[in-house]
Design brief:
Blueprint (H helix, E strand, L loop, with lengths): L7 E9 L2 E3 L4 E9 L5 E9 L2 E10 L3 E9 L5 E7 L2 E8 L26 H26 L1
Length: 147
């Protein structure tokens, strides 16, 4: 008796990560099951926005399944419909963040302005008095020597 020929079904389409930066590779996995009795070849077609971008042919034994894996990279920001044989998921590609600019230098610490030093009037007065006394002593000494 002849068994049922290879019959394929596709399930569990997944993208990792579902959000990527421009140029970042994402992994696309899908499970292909052969529900027939005999082995068969299946051609998985990876489509992005309705356009085939990659294909893989796999041979799957009867009553088994296999994970088919693709790597996908997009070079423009946007939301893409990624599909394989009727299964569809979205891929969001973000623009790369702007490179960081030069670091801003830290603000120099603000030095508190010192309080003005109070004028020591006692010292100034003492110096004036000492000079006057010295001048008086010199004056008197000179006058006494002349006399």
């Amino acid at each position: 008796t002849t068994g049922m020929p290879a019959t394929f079904s596709v399930t569990s389409l997944a993208i990792d990560p579902a959000e990527a930066d421009i140029g970042q590779a994402v992994v696309v996995n899908v499970i292909v099951a052969n529900t027939g009795d005999g082995a068969g070849k299946y051609q998985a077609k990876l489509m992005v926005d309705g356009t085939v971008v990659a294909t893989k042919e796999v041979t799957i034994a009867g009553h088994t399944d296999m994970t088919v894996t693709f790597s996908l990279t997009q070079d423009a920001a946007g939301t893409y419909s990624v599909s394989i044989d009727g299964q569809s998921v979205s891929l969001v590609v973000k623009a790369a963040p702007a490179p960081p600019g030069p670091p801003t230098p830290p603000e120099p610490p603000v030095e508190p302005t010192p309080a003005p030093t109070p004028i020591n009037w006692w010292l100034i007065g003492g110096i004036i008095v000492a000079v006057m006394i010295a001048a008086t002593v010199v004056y008197l000494t000179v006058i006494r020597q002349r006399a």
